[in-house]
Amino acid sequence: MILARRQAAAWDSPGRAGLTWLGQAGFWIDTGHHRLLIDPYLSDSLARKYAGRRHDHRRMMPPPITPEALPRPDLVLVTHAHTDHMDPDTLGPLAARCPDLPFVVPAACEAIARERIGAGARLVLVDAGERIEPLPGLRLTVLPAAHETRDTDAQGRHLFLGYAVGFADTILYHSGDCVPFAGLEGLLCDLSPGIVLLPVNGRDAARREAGIPGNFTLEEAVALAQKAGAAVLVPHHFGLFAFNTCEPAAIDRLAAVTDRPAILRPRPGETLHPRQEPDAAGMPLLPGR
């Protein structure tokens, strides 16, 4: 099976398997049976918060869809409480429109999730190590993440999470914000994900001193995908904020010399979807387990 590009967004063709990048760590994923929303940041809430400061959080790219125009998904996954992942101006209006919509959030972040998503929002509280079936036919494995460090609350619950989503014969892994840490490779090898969505904006001392925790470098993301046996790497968390990004050209250069995993740089609002026969746009990808 191959993965090809089409310009239309996945929400325009419900029931057709594919994924659309929303910018930063956000994705809309259609499994063919379920529509999932992960870490959407579709507003300018951070630009308003940091206006006039050195790191002003102005967007380098517009959101491919507004929060108001976003269709109702079947499930929302939130990896942690940083605003570009748990955005009140995106998730709050969505919860108000869809009061029965389930939001999977870290149990350690319940209080802030209630504040940002809604006091009466339907929260599904999870922690690393749990396996649940939030919707019929959809399997969710919750993994720890290290946003430079593996932080926990007073009860030992993880503040940063990743999710492995299983559907049909495919496992897709979204790491959330994460760096390499002991044990992660083993967890992924046990899961055997076919597709991995990993941040590639990297990290350095200057950002750390400014209170901006980092993520995988591009090379670290490729190495992790290779060790996990993934066929497809979709890099993300670049191109939104000028002070915290990776050059798209660097992704393309590495993709040109890497056979496995196949590296597909996403484009906002464009869908990556499976096709049965190769064509000029296709690449050999998307196996099952």
Description of the structure:
There is one protein chain. This protein is of the alpha/beta class and 289 residues long. The chain has one domain (2-275): Metallo-beta-lactamase, Chain A (4-Layer Sandwich). The protein is 19% helix and 26% strand. The protein has 7 helices and 16 strands. A 9-stranded mixed beta sheet has the order 7-6-5-4-3-2-15-1-16, with helices on one face. Strands 8-9-10-11-12-13-14 form a 7-stranded mixed beta sheet. The longest helix is centred in the last third of the chain and has 11 residues, at 218-228. The protein starts with a strand and ends in a 5-residue tail after the last strand. Residues 276-289 have low confidence and may be disordered.
Please describe the topology of this protein.
Elements: E1 2-6, E2 18-23, E3 26-30, E4 35-38, H1 45-49, E5 75-77, H2 88-97, E6 102-106, H3 110-117, E7 122-126, E8 131-135, E9 138-144, E10 161-167, E11 170-174, H4 184-191, E12 195-199, H5 205-209, H6 218-228, E13 232-236, H7 248-256, E14 262-263, E15 271-275, E16 283-284
Parallel strand pairs: 4-5, 5-6, 6-7, 11-12, 12-13, 13-14
Antiparallel strand pairs: 1-15, 1-16, 2-3, 2-15, 3-4, 8-9, 9-10, 10-11
Short description:
With 289 residues, the protein is of the alpha/beta class. The chain is 19% helix and 26% strand. The protein is globular, with a radius of gyration of 18 Å.
Q: What is the distance, rounded to the nearest whole angstrom, between the alpha carbons of the first and last residues?
A: 13 Å
Number of helices: 7
CATH class identity = Alpha Beta
> Strand fraction band?
25-35%
Note the run of SSEs as H and E: EEEEHEHEHEEEEEHEHHEHEEE
